[in-house]
Amino acid sequence: MANAIDAMRTSESRLLTISASALADRVVVRVRDSGPGIPLALSERLFEPFFTTKAPGEGLGLGLVISSHIVREFGGTLRSVPSANGAMFEFDVARG
How many CB atoms lie within 10 A of CB 16? Predict the structure, then answer.
């Protein structure tokens, strides 16, 4: 969510949407923003340690790596989802 808020800083329209849905024995959580989105060429590197699209001094490039690790510890997967507008990430975890 922090990345989404940062990405929307210069957008005219700022909308952050969080949704959850149950699928069989999993819950899928989606976070979508109305920012500029993520170029396809960069999406392959999003989960690399120290990779960031932020200006120098504004980010370490560890947030998605750490978030991905936390989700994985709960048996899920964090991923970037291609989106026509803005950026979208989703993760799934087992239903409790």
Answer: 15
pLDDT in tens, 2-21: 888 888 988 888 999 999 99
Say which amino acid occupies 45: R
Q: How is the chain classified by DSSP, letter by letter?
A: -HHHHHHGGG-SS--EEEEEEEETTEEEEEEEE-SS---HHHHTTTTSTT---SPTTS--S-HHHHHHHHHHHTT-EEEEE--SSS-EEEEEEE--
Which domains are present in the chain? 2-94 (3.30.565.10)
pLDDT digits (tens, 9 = 90+) for 51-78: 988 888 888 899 999 999 999 999 999 9
